[in-house]
Amino acid sequence: MILSIITDWGEEEMINLIKKDIIVYIKSERIKMFKYLIAFLLMYLFLNDISYYGIPVIFTYFIMIGIFSGDSENKSIRFIRSMPVKLDEIVYSRYLMCIGTLISSIIVTDLVCNFLSNYMFRPVVMNDVFFAVDISLVIMSIAQLLFFRFGYDYIKIAAAGIGIAVFVLYGSFLKVVAEKVYLLNAGTTILKTGYYETDTVFTQMFEGVSAYINTTFINMYSMTVLAFIIYLISMRISIKFMNGNRYIK
């Protein structure tokens, strides 16, 4: 399915749209990009146990928000509207850009954390990647769909609030799933290391349903597949909104 979608895209137009997004983002952010370094250091030092997956999620969200914000400030969408570019391709390029940003954020976080682990905390592990991918895809599925439906300026605050809620609630649920899988594999007490030390009210709430989780079907792999399905559904709905001319004014 994904391969057929990619084949249908106009490759040259897609590349040009992605280049446009990168240029718009760099021009609109500039010095502000130092906020990512500050956010990284603060989370790594003071929220270490969630920083390994939290940093890629936050970076991906900031960067994609910067692109939508740059479009809004520069009115670049109106310019694209005047060009022979299909509206579908604008949506495709934005969703593809998000995937590329997420992958890049995970790679950079992995490299930096693994380097710093020689001096401070642990390195990145596979579950960190699962958490980052799953949470980011769900957050950006909702955020981008809202932006294409209502426009960035009208929904940015609500989108940020929803993103925070998803990070906390969905992250807590993923933690319970990961702990259940670990319990079954290790056959011992719940993992309590620097790996999962942030216990919240929401985590305790989801632990109540832990007994009903069948890890044969609900595990980190199936949750990642689900996140990608949600992302593809969001993209399809966003295309309908875009063609309905709700985002481009």
From TrEMBL:
It comes from the Bacteria. Signal peptide: none annotated. InterPro entries: ABC2_memb-like. Keywords: Membrane, Transmembrane, Transmembrane helix. The chain crosses the membrane at residues 53-70, 91-117, 129-147, 154-173, 211-233. Pfam families: ABC2_membrane_5. This is ABC-2 transporter permease. It comes from Peptacetobacter hominis.
